[in-house]
Write a structure and sequence with these properties.
globular, about 400 residues, 12 helices, five-stranded parallel beta sheet, alpha/beta
């Protein structure tokens, strides 16, 4: 099994979840085992193709909206999450390049070492593709959102994989929560994918009309097909019917242009967060939520609460972009923990009142520092006088996450 930069093997130490048991692609016996399994699959009568998933290393960077779940902040590549340091991987690298990555102060800054690990994963993917194609079957994969993001986050340089079709997991709610994340990713994927690969888009199911806005963003920026993870998430009959109508309209459109050359959009990701109206609106919403939460905590009904527990509950509810969703998450989470129901009502009632009476007026954003893939800003909310830290994350060169927090010091 794989080993992290601290020398800890997945055989003894968990990474996020128990089922993360990644084998090292550097070992011949690992490759032999995988190829034997793929060959057996390809002999199954009626099987049209093979799709690979989890073909990568452990996430050195999780999607930003998952950090709270694991109680971490991954503003850089930390040793405990940085995998690919199996002795055989290190030996092969030393043999090829003449030095040990571990001899450096920070191996995560070594592009040669990064690319070497990515290439090991790529070699296995293409060995699988060779077998699949030898049987005349289709080769597919569901990697991380873009080749550049995947390379940095999980060592998947999937633009070099010999895939027939790819469904990158463009789960926007795990990242920025904004629809622009989908269009940014699709533009990057269209540019960086293997030329022989047909671009699809993997997205999470939304049990509301946003589902169709998401699909529009994908189709309008290069996707030729969409995979929903999973369709059971479309729970309401109204949304299911609308989904069927949407799918039928796409099929009809394709049939009408079947004999015409399809134009491939060549858009460009927007890397300036201040030009993204959805993100800026969400930043304002979270500022309002913090201001309102502080007021709620001061109410008599909140006198004897467990403030640490309630703050954790508040932070979980805040993992969204709109006032409506924040309110729904507040009440939905309290329904799962009935002991928090009255607390949730107080917070939600205060927020509804403040959203009707408070206007958020953001001053100028002051860049504090740039550190790798992260930009740190401070900004003053003029009406309350409160200062906020606003952070933007650019893993793989696109806006892949953001956060807002009140500054915990005097200004």
């Amino acid at each position: 099994l794989e080993v992290n930069r601290n020398g800890e093997s997945l055989a003894e130490k968990k990474a996020y979840v128990d089922y993360y048991k990644f084998m090292t692609p550097a070992l011949p016996e690992v490759r032999e085992h995988i190829m034997k399994k793929i060959d057996e699959l390809c002999k199954v009568e009626g099987l049209n193709g093979v799709a690979i998933d989890y073909h990568r290393l452990v996430d050195v960077i999780l999607p930003t909206r998952l950090w709270l779940k694991y109680g971490i902040v991954q503003d850089r590549e930390y040793p405990e999450w940085d995998y690919g340091y199996h002795p055989e991987m290190l030996r092969l690298f030393r043999e090829k390049y003449g030095y040990d990555p571990l001899s450096q102060d920070d191996p995560s800054l070594d592009d040669q070492w990064l690319q070497f690990r990515c290439d090991q994963v790529t070699e296995v993917a293409n060995e699988i593709a060779d077998i699949v194609h030898s049987y005349g079957k289709v080769m597919a994969a569901s990697p991380f959102p873009t080749p550049a993001m995947s390379k940095k986050m999980v060592r998947q340089d999937w633009g070099k994989w010999n895939l027939d079709i790819v469904f990158p997991m463009v789960y926007h709610n795990f990242y920025t929560g904004d629809l622009s994340f989908i269009s940014d990713c699709m533009s990057e994927c269209e540019r960086d994918k293997n030329q022989v690969t047909t671009l699809g888009c993997g997205m999470t199911a939304s049990n509301n009309s946003e589902m169709f806005d998401c699909m529009d963003q994908a189709f309008n920026n290069g996707a030729r097909s969409i995979a929903i993870f999973t369709v059971s998430g479309l729970r309401s009959e109204e949304i299911r019917n609308e989904f069927r109508q949407y799918a039928d309209s796409v099929r009809a459109l394709r049939a009408s242009v079947k004999d015409k050359a399809a134009s491939i959009p060549m858009g460009k990701a927007e890397t300036d967060p201040f030009k993204k109206s959805g993100i800026m609106s969400a930043v304002k919403m979270q500022m309002l939520a913090y201001i309102s939460f502080e007021k709620a905590l001061a109410l008599p009904e909140m006198k004897n609460i467990d403030k640490e527990l309630v703050n954790h509950y508040f932070q979980n509810a805040l993992q969204c972009n709109t006032e409506k969703e924040y309110h729904e998450r507040l009440m939905g989470m309290s329904a799962r923990d009935t002991s928090l129901y009255k607390v949730a009502e107080v917070i939600a009632r205060q927020f509804v009142s403040d959203s009707q009476t408070i206007s958020i007026d953001m001053g100028s954003f002051n860049l504090v520092r740039k550190d790798g893939a992260v930009d740190y800003y401070t900004v003053k909310e003029n009406n309350s006088g409160k200062m906020f830290d606003v952070t933007f994350y650019f893993y793989g060169g696109i806006l892949s996450g953001w956060s807002v927090e009140p500054v915990m010091r005097n200004h």
